[in-house]
Here is the input.
Amino acid sequence: MNQAYGSSMQRRRGGGIRWWILLAFAGYAAFTWFGGRKTDPYTGEAAHYGATPSEESELGVQAYQQVLGEAQQQGALLPQSDPTSQEVTAIAQRLVKVVPQVAADLAKLHDQPAPDLSAYDWQVSVLKSDEANAFCLPGGKIAVYTGLIPIAQTRDALAVVMGHEIAHALLRHGSQRMAQQKLVQLGQMAAGVSGIDQQTMAALGAGVQYGVVLPYGRGHESQADEVGLMLAAAACYDPQQAIPLWERMSQLGGGQRPPEFASTHPDPANRIARLQSLMPQAQEFHDRYCSSGAAQDQPL
Here is the structure.
């Protein structure tokens, strides 16, 4: 056999095997992704989960205990008797109190059964830090950093942020990211086994990052904005305070940030515009739950 012809045949066979591997992965990925698709009761959108609610809750408890343990060692965990802790706890209690009814109302809007909330065991802590941040882990473990309070300025604005973080937990975004990460990792393995060259691998990786991972994160932020705003409104906080809040948040770090396509968060202007579009619905939630009329914003 001609040596050049033999080499050409080997390249063709190698290329054929490579594409068969990729096609097999694509078929498996499609079967796994679409076969496991469920409807999110809060948004009516398709969702994919990488863990059960009880598994998520266990992971959340472990992470929370680690965070609190480290904060306690550093003297950064505020005691429950601290006035700031009491303020934050009171806001959390109001938000958590309306979770079952808001969850049921949103599910009804999307013709879905009310979500099961049995895996949530709500707890809130305040950590001394200059960081303007808060989080809510799977299962309902909430932490608020004291650096957020000067940016929030008011109880209503702080309730909007905390509602946003609680919404991440309710929407099970952690579990959804796990499902996505598993799929991405499988794709990387399939690409590696198929023998794709490093340059092509890098291009595919960038395509996945900018075309899948980052938009997925921005979608989660928008969902949390919407559900969190409804929680704050139903807890009788003024939803209108979300607008000046996010205007102040957008100025952190001198207002410098990557363009939206390269970020897990929406551009501040787009975020504010969407929040403004949600205000009529938020006001309906406020009016439905709060018989005392318009919310009264109060400084912290």
